[in-house]
Structure formats: C-alpha cells, structure tokens
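## retry 2 of 3
previous attempt timed out at serialization; input unchanged, resubmitting
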Amino acid sequence: MNDFWVFGYGSLMWRPGFAFLEATKARARGYHRSLCIHSHVHRGTPERPGLVFGLDRGGSCVGMAFRVAGAEREAVTAYLRERELVTNVYRETALAVRLDGGTSVHALAYVVDRGHAQYAGRIAVADAARIVASAHGRSGANIDYVTSALDHIRALGLRDPWLEDVVARL
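## retry succeeded, writing output
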C-alpha cells in the first residue's frame, strides 16, 4: 500500500495525533487559513462558541504536510474523521500541495463547508478577540488554541497580521 499525505494548517500542524514518516512545510493554493468556524465542541460550546481555523477558498496557505505509511491509511483516516468531522463543518478532500522542496503531492485535508451553520465567515479583529478570550471547550481554552497556532505560523517563518492583531488584543 502506498504512503499518503495529510495537510495540516491549524492544530494538526503542532499536534497531529498520528504517527508519520516525514513532516515538511507545504503550500496549498486556492485556499487560505481563516479563523472562520464557530467551535461548539473542541474550543467552545453551543452556548458560548469559540473560533477555530478553516481552510477557506481563495489565496494560498502554508502549513505542514505529513507523509504517513500506507499501512496506516485506514487508522489515520478514521482518527482524522473522528477529530475533524465532529459536527461536519469540514469537507474531507484531497488537495494538491507543494512540499517545501518543490514536489507536488495530493494530501488529505479538511476544507470548511461555507454552507454549514457553524461557518462564521470573515470576522472583525475586535469581535474575534472577544469570542476567543471567553470560549472554552472539550480540548481546552480557545485562547490557547489561537496563540499556539500563531506561534507555529511564526515558526514556519510566516506572518499573519490579522491573527497577530487578534492575539495582541487577548
């Protein structure tokens, strides 16, 4: 069975939760990382939703690509579906990504469903900071998720001025 790739752009970058053979910086074109999903489970509740990242259409996104042994495909896919498809706000898809060395591969990724009730769209910085500051879910405080994401985005040598502004207000 052939190895396969998984693309992470949010918490999968720093906490994939599965065994992998290789991890490298990668870019997905046609999508951008956006704090555009109301989280009712992992980083918030239905009464006080948090915000989590979605891979939304337009632009490009640098994240991490993980090469996984083909023998682990079923187990890793099942794990990712349990983790990412809790409320079905994401669509599981195969995206073309360009690895740091220039090679293009198809990677399993989770793209936001813009028609889902949890899709928040574009949010003003002040509103995002207010939501993130007070939300907490099954996986912990929303503020920890957002600040950790920014730390990892910076570790990749990237800037996200909008997200930096949100974190500065926390």
